[in-house]
Amino acid sequence: MRKNYVTMLCLAMMLVACGQQTKQKETTMEFTDQVKEALADGGRIALDSLQWTREPKDYEVKGDTILITTAPKTDLWQRTYYHFQNDNAPVLQMKTREKFFSFVVKTDFTGSHHRFDQCGIVMYLGSENWLKGSVEYENEEFQHLGSVVTNNGYSDWATTAIPAEVKTMWYRFSRREDDYCIECSSDGQTFSQMRVCHMPAAADEISFGIYACSPEESSFTAIFSDMRITECAWKAHDGQQPD
């Protein structure tokens, strides 16, 4: 009797183990590395495969262009200086485990008209770990071209003032393992560095893409186009040490 019990117990354990292996295989199969797919397809991004975090009420996809109309009081910010938290901006992203690549997108914010109206690139891992790059409207004279990096629930903000008449901007987001670079360009050809940062929470699978928001009582339509994935344009450091 004991022999039969042991045999049945072993069979049950084998079935559980097989089920776990099958589940692991299914989980692996469910993950689609969208960067690798895009690189294999000449850099083209399948817009219908992108995923929303907080889908906006008003958006439209036209060919290779995405239009997002912001809602008032939407933002991404955590704690620092202003002593408040706002984590409700719509974010449209793709997933990857690829460690070396660049993502390029053109933004058109002609409709921005109120303080802090913004749109740009984002890597949103969760409410306490993310980065973004954008132009934020300030007034009729100038606006802020800048980036925010949020680690462990605290945001920073690095900016430079640019003329208010600038209404389009290209961004390039590059990854080298768990280090990241944000660049901007007025023509999509020549890019200038905005920020280099390290993100401990972004060492493996990440999500990245685009966002738009209006932190105050405002709304505008942000236009995103010319999105593509390329081989990593952020070259490895040549190893030269400071003098």
Q: How is the topology of this model organized?
A:
Blueprint: H1 2-30, H2 34-40, E1 51-53, E2 58-62, E3 65-69, E4 76-78, E5 85-87, E6 91-96, E7 100-108, E8 118-126, E9 129-137, E10 142-151, E11 154-155, E12 158-163, E13 168-176, E14 179-185, E15 192-198, E16 206-213, E17 221-230
Antiparallel strand pairs: 1-6, 2-3, 3-17, 4-5, 6-16, 7-13, 7-17, 8-9, 8-16, 9-10, 10-11, 10-12, 13-14, 14-15
Q: Mind explaining what this structure looks like?
A:
This protein has two helices and 17 strands. The protein is globular, with a radius of gyration of 22 Å. It starts with a helix and ends in a 13-residue tail after the last strand. Residues 22-29 have low confidence and may be disordered. The protein has one domain (33-230): Sandwich (Jelly Rolls). By secondary structure, it is mostly beta strands.
Task: Give the uncertain stretches in residue-range form.
Answer: 22-29
Supply the number of structural domains. 1
The H/E string reads: HHEEEEEEEEEEEEEEEEE
Hey, roughly how much beta strand do the residues contain?
A: over 45%
Characterize the biggest β-sheet.
8 strands, antiparallel
Computed CA radius of gyration, to the nearest angstrom: 22 Å
Helix content: 10-25%
- Form type: globular
| Oligomeric status | single chain
- What is the structural class? mainly beta
Termini gap: 80 Å
Average residue-wise pLDDT: 90
CATH top-level class: Mainly Beta
Number of helices: 2
Q: How many beta-strand runs?
A: 17
> What CATH architecture do you see?
Sandwich
